[in-house]
Amino acid sequence: MISSGGMYVPLNPPSCRITHSKILQENVYDPVLHKIGHARHLIATVEQLSKSSAGHFGRLATLIRNCPSFQKISKKIVRLDIDEAHCIYTAGSPLYGLPAFRPSWSLLPNLIAHFPRLTRVHAFSATLPPHILKSVANVLKPDYTFIHVTSNRPNTMYATHQVHGAIDNLHNYECFVQQPFDLDKQPHNLTTKIADHLNSCLPVQFRGARIVHHYHSGMSEEYLQQVHDSFIDPNGSCRILVATSGESVGVDFPNVKIVCAADLPSTIVDVLQRAGRALRASMET
Q: Where, by residue number, does the polypeptide cross the bilayer (predicted)?
């Protein structure tokens, strides 16, 4: 599986997420012992499967291209699943005068060329308007089948909220704290701004109780993982997550009731991806 987080190559269980070379060596292929590992489902990022900006192939990419023993495995690959396939365009293409954010997405055809001709390639996305579908189609075989189902769910709705004053007026975000406050009934909100102020709007006994959290790339990986786990856990303390776009695409939140995009997202893809974080686990309205 290739996704914004990872290549899914199904042969048979078990699965293996490739996060560093030791996992690759222990579970997929040991180049020292020339031993094939037990993993049959490989999950990797596009960067692990292509050449880096410095001109070097990663370990998994090298195995696929240059290792005769591993190429015997490659011949058995029956399916390649590409998750968040819109990233081929949104992250893999230069846009608006800026270079591609993750250019490895544009190199998928080079990878697919190393797999057997009969390997099926599946691309998945909730946001494939015509111009993005055209880019994705370049990765697929010419006779691909397009299956379309609506991304609208009957238990969700879109709404706009007119801000008072400026977008950075903190009082605009107080509507996300339930009044009167009841921790058991406080809905999970995924917003994009101003955690400190929302924390100050809580009753005194709940302030600093980790009900409201910041989330952005400048924080440590350990902190981000703890906050994410607390937010998705039905019994976790975090009910309001003030996040950047890192939590807006491809994240399966089971319990978010309200998503607020503060200010206008840059593209309709961003709008739909952010809205797609809400009410994913039930038909609750």
A: none
Other beta carbons less than 10 A from residue 52's beta carbon: 12
Same-domain pairing of 130 and 178: no
Confidence of residue 85 (pLDDT cuts 50, 70, 90): very high
Sign of CA dihedral 62, 85, 250, 104: positive
Residue 244 in contact with residue 215, Cβ under 8 Å?
Answer: yes
pTM of the model: 0.65
Residues 36, 94 share a domain: yes
Report pLDDT for 5: 45
What is Dmax (Cα atoms) for the chain?
Answer: 66
Q: Is the pLDDT of residue 234 over 60?
A: yes
In this structure, the answer to whether residues 244 and 195 fall within a common structural domain is yes
Q: Does the residue 165 lie in any domain?
A: no
Examine residue 227 and state whether it is found in any structural domain, yes or no.
Answer: yes
Q: Work out whether strand 29-30 and strand 35-36 pair parallel, antiparallel, or are unpaired.
A: antiparallel
Asked if the model's pLDDT at residue 183 lies above 60, the reply is yes
Of the residues 92, 114, 137, the one at which a domain ends: 137
Distances (CA, A) of 31 to 27, 36, 187, 222: 12, 9, 50, 31
If residue 121 lies in a helix (H) or strand (E), which one and from where to where? strand 120-123
Q: What average pLDDT does the segment 221-250 reach?
A: 79
Question: Is the pLDDT reported for residue 76 higher than 50?
Answer: yes
Q: Give me the domain span that covers residue 215.
A: 170-275
For residues 127 and 10, state if they share a domain. Answer: yes
Do 117 and 180 belong together in one domain? no
Q: Are 249 and 4 in contact (CB under 8 A)?
A: yes
Q: Is residue 74 part of a domain?
A: yes
